[in-house]
Amino acid sequence: MALGIKARNGVVIASDKKVNSVLVDLDDYQKIQNITPSTGFVYAGMGPDFRVQVRNARKEAQKYYLTYREVQPVSQIVKESALLMQEYTQSGGVRAFGVSLLVAGYDDDGPQLYQVDPSGAAFGWKATAIGKNYVNAKNFLERRYSDDVELDDAVHIALLTLRESYEGEMNEHNIEVGIVGEDRIFRVLTPAEVKDYLEEA
């Protein structure tokens, strides 16, 4: 499952890193990726399909930068990803993408959170969840969310929401959290930072 929360001063996206075997090295398994310095993706679904989306989004963002010498706005990144998804629903010889995305970013319009579905539909959200148990997670977010929530509190709400549906022990190695604040730098929290938040939550 993955979820996102738009705070007053930033956006947080978070995901569990569930794997089929205890032998998998979780440090090499990443579900959150940077697209531009101020935007990141997280996914629910098929990992290889996500890699295709990430590669395409990075390429389009770089084209935009080389043309206009500024970072591509979040809404345009979302449109490019949604367009690629939609093309695959109607082209011959290909299948639809088996992945949903949450896009978190910060630009001149402030903090933004979008969801992109395999159909090519894209929605803006204050808070949402995708993947397994997303209905329960959304219900939990509806009870906890407020428009004036701070980024720090949003991280805590994200972790509490993940904990609601997490089977087994949740620790800094099996969940991933990405944030972008008013500094417009999207980054993935280190395991040590996640551990601190978990101890407070």
Characterise the protein shown here:
With 201 residues, the protein is an alpha+beta fold. It has helices at residues 47-68, 74-90, 134-144, 151-165, 191-200; strands at 2-7, 10-16, 32-36, 39-45, 99-107, 110-116, 122-124, 127-130, 175-181, 186-188. The strands form two sheets. A five-stranded antiparallel sheet has the order 8-1-2-9-10. Helix 1 (47-68) packs across helix 2. The radius of gyration is 16 Å and the shape is globular. The two termini are 19 Å apart.
Rg from alpha-carbon coordinates: 16 Å
**Average of pLDDT:** 94
Q: Please outline the major beta sheet.
A: 5 strands, antiparallel
Could you list the spans in which at least 5 consecutive residues all have pLDDT below 50? none
Reading the helices and strands in chain order gives EEEEHHEEEEHHEEH
Q: Given the structure, what is the number of helices?
A: 5
Query: Percent helix among the residues?
Result: 25-40%
Q: What is the assembly state of the chains in this entry?
A: single chain
The strands making up the biggest β-sheet line up spatially as 8-1-2-9-10
The end-to-end span amounts to 19 Å
General form: globular
How many strands?
10
Structural class: alpha+beta
What percent of residues are in strands? 25-35%
Produce the secondary structure layout.
Elements: E1 2-7, E2 10-16, E3 32-36, E4 39-45, H1 47-68, H2 74-90, E5 99-107, E6 110-116, E7 122-124, E8 127-130, H3 134-144, H4 151-165, E9 175-181, E10 186-188, H5 191-200
Helix pairs in contact: 1-2, 3-4
